[in-house]
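Marked as duplicate of an earlier ticket. Keeping the data here for the record.
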Amino acid sequence: MEDCTSWTPANTVLKAGRELSSWFFKRPSTQRRPSLFSLCTSPREPELYDTDSPMDLDIPKQPLHINDLPPEILEEIFTAYLNSSDPDDSFAQCEGARYRVSSHLDSSSNPVPLGQVCSTWRVLTQALPVLWRRISVYCPQPQDTPLFALWLERSGEMRIDLTLVDSSTFTEDSTTTIREIFRLALTHSHRWNTVTFDLTTDMGDLLAFEPLPPTPSLYSFDIQVGQWSERSLQLLLNLLYSSPSLRRVSYSMTSSNTIISAISQTPGQHFHNITHLKMGFITGEGLFHLLGRYTSLISLSFRTAIPPVRQKLITLPTLRFLYIDHGDDIIPLLDSLHLPSLTHLTLPNGVVSEFSPKLQTNDGWDALCGLLDRSAVKLKDFTFNASGVDENMLVQALSSPLLDSLESLNIKSMVTDPLITALTLPRRTGNYGAVGLLPKLQSLELRKCSSSDGCLSELIISREATLRNVKVGLQGSQGFDRDLALRMPGVQILF
């Protein structure tokens, strides 16, 4: 199948690139170079050589043309290019199929231009399905459909990573185009590995047939559907959850009420396979309802703006990573969980919201310690925000023996001398297993630190036997000459 018209090599930049390539990578001479073996075994006339000086073989050095590299090396080069990202690419300001259909949304990287550099590259790119296994479509136009079809064809039987994003601004052309692309994608559902659908256009009618297309290889999906009906969402989930290989699920910002209702009606034969779940905003009651279905989770991430009502104890026996972004009191949630495998906990808003009336009390920390004690876990990584919390209370909370197992601590809010001093080990016990606050700490990140000059340096030096990584953002009008002068491996101090 020929390349679509959007990719004709009439582009001035491509022509210049070819000329520069031919000039820079000149082909070597066809004259054979003498081998090292022949040079070493040929008869030597003693009078022609000075035994006290090294022999000058005078072998001519010729530049190597890039096409003389083995195909395996070129494949690695092409793959690295396609996996690269360009943060300067702005989809809102870019035009052309190169920016609407690419290997991933963070870049305009595309295997089609590679095949237009020369005939050798064209043959190679068409013979390597791995270069076409990632497809991202962003707000397509009608002329992009042939390119998408070409991409699917050249990916062969590879498992594909597919991303489809449409525009929130409806036009007849845009709606028709994204529907046609979605229809084409459905014909290859048996090859889906990961899919990301950020679609405003309702595709329910394209899914309303029996039997559903198979998705045996689907490992991960991320969906954000803005104006889909509940029935359409139900059909999509039936398709996605039919995969026995499914392990990762993300609902992004999809309405929690719609999701909960749709999941409730989704056949549950593969729910026990899900290991990673990421939710958008969800009510506390809705969260408890979902956790009853996902019993094998390793990682759970969600946002909640409505405080949950305390429920009977819910056990997630394999959960290791927990991320809770909340806008209110999560104490009832912490009181309702039993997590015997928890090792990593992230609370970007702390254990209580800054709008909570319980902010200045120990209730939030008591609830967290209750969770750790009840679960009998040894937490290794803790990221949290303590904005507005009295620092002496924070020191007291971190002094709990339940946190002695911590190896990584990341505090997103401002810290000052009281916490820095508390984390500093006495000089006589500055070794692994020392008695003190968080004795096993190996990684420390303080996003905002306003301490006396030298206080931070003393903390780092006191833990030099165990501390491997330190990242601190110093803030304040005073100087930090002593702290900024500290030079140790793994220590990054920013001002």
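See parent ticket for discussion. The chain is about 30% helix and 15% strand.
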